[in-house]
Amino acid sequence: MGAWTALPPTARAQTADTGISGLADVIDADVLRFGQQRVILWAIDAPERPQRCYINGTFWGCHEAAKRHLQVLAGRGEVSCTYRGEPDRLGRQYGVCTSGGQDLNEEMVKTGFALAYEEQSDEYLPAMIDAITAGVGLWQVGVEFEEPWEFRRRETPGGLR
Fold first, then answer.
1. Taking Cα atoms as reference points, which of 81, 73, 64 lies closest to residue 21?
2. CA 65, 85, 133: angle at the middle one, nearest 5?
3. Domain at 13-142: CATH architecture
4. Domain limits, the chain
5. What's the pTM value of the predicted model, to 2 decimals?
């Protein structure tokens, strides 16, 4: 029998400055963590933790719902992220992340738990149109919400995610 060494469950592989993969922790509705490296999902924006959403006038925890959905998507196994754009001023990378061949960024938008963030790219606009048409997530009938970037500009110093 050959000898082998089991890698710890949080093992990561990073390829220069192109990306990162491994088991990811979901730390926000649009942010993953691989060890010490945080990856913000590129070209999408999900509700912020203190943000308030309503369905027919009743409080709805839209941030918690979005975060849980990302946990389900990222919890299926290894996640691979390809870096896009420049890191933010805190050194956090932006990335397009996949798991099991599924684009997590697109899935978050398609299910209505995040919006296409056109400030970075319009690549997820078709997925957002699908979500609006299907009336899912933030696009359900009776839901009131503020775009996360507008909420951040008003409530977060420096607008950081």
1. 81
2. 40
3. Beta Barrel (2.40)
4. 13-142
5. 0.87
Structure tokens at 29: 């509705």
φ and ψ at residue 41, rounded to 5 degrees: -65, 125
Which of the residue ranges 65-69, 88-92, 119-123 would you say has the lowest mean pLDDT? 88-92
User: Which are the contacts of 133, defined by CB distance < 8 A and separation ≥ 6?
Assistant: none
Write out pLDDT tens, residues 18-55: 999 999 999 999 999 999 999 999 999 999 999 999 99
Per DSSP, the three-state class of 133 is helix
Residues in the chain: 161
Nearest C-alpha neighbor of 24 from the set 36, 33, 12, 37: 33
Determine the Cα–Cα distance for residues 5 and 11; give it in Å rounded to an integer: 12
- Can you tell me the distance from the alpha carbon of 146 to that of 52, in angstroms, rounded to the nearest whole number? 8
Q: By CB neighbour count within 10 A (0-12 exposed, 13-18 middle, 19+ buried), where does 56 fall?
A: exposed
Q: Which residues, 6+ apart, have CB-to-CB distance to 36 below 8 Å?
A: none
